[in-house]
Specification:
It is a single chain. Helices cover 81% and strands 0% of the residues. Helix 1 runs antiparallel to helix 2. The protein contains five helices and no strands. By secondary structure, it is mainly α. The mean pLDDT is 96. The protein is elongated, with a radius of gyration of 16 Å. The protein starts with a helix and ends with a helix.
């Protein structure tokens, strides 16, 4: 597979995971989520879809760049991509916990684990391909913000 095909495969996979996560959130965003007390820094609902779409594209691009290094750094690449898949699954799980189960506390605990795995993935990606590491930085910042937002929502609605 050439570099472009790898990028396309992983980006489409990430966007598909995001889309499936979005299915879980849709009904709760219209019914349950508006009933919650939210902090003053809560962004408007419309911002989440474009931000997450961009982040999924950047994540996929980063993973494909790392995947492209498989010939020269096989063990490091495999390890990094395993972490990538785990953090992507945890990313999706957060939506289910927060919106599907309507459980901000459990989602808050899970987002800490997610953040740690994103950070570890960033470290491994950065060692393999600097640009791939840089592509993960906005994701790390956004999930940091999401963690603060999640904790605030839990605190205000406990």
């Amino acid at each position: 597979m050439n570099k472009f095909t790898k990028i396309l495969v992983v980006v489409v996979t990430c966007l598909a995971v995001g889309y499936l996560s979005g299915i879980v959130t849709r009904s709760s965003i219209e019914t349950w989520y508006p009933t919650l007390i939210k902090p003053s820094f809560n962004p408007p609902n419309w911002i989440f879809a474009p931000v997450w779409s961009l982040l999924y594209i950047m994540m996929g691009w980063a993973a494909a760049l790392v995947w492209n290094e498989i010939e020269s750094k096989q063990e490091e690449v495999k390890s990094a991509l395993i972490l990538f898949v785990i953090q992507l699954a945890l990313n999706s799980l957060w939506s289910f916990l927060f919106f599907g189960l309507k459980n901000p506390m459990l989602a808050g605990i899970e987002i800490i684990l997610l953040w740690l795995l994103i950070y570890e993935t960033f470290i491994k990606f950065n060692k393999i391909n600097k640009f791939a590491g840089y592509l993960f930085i906005p994701y790390l910042f956004w999930v940091s913000f999401a963690g603060i937002l999640n904790a605030s929502i839990w605190w205000l609605n406990r």
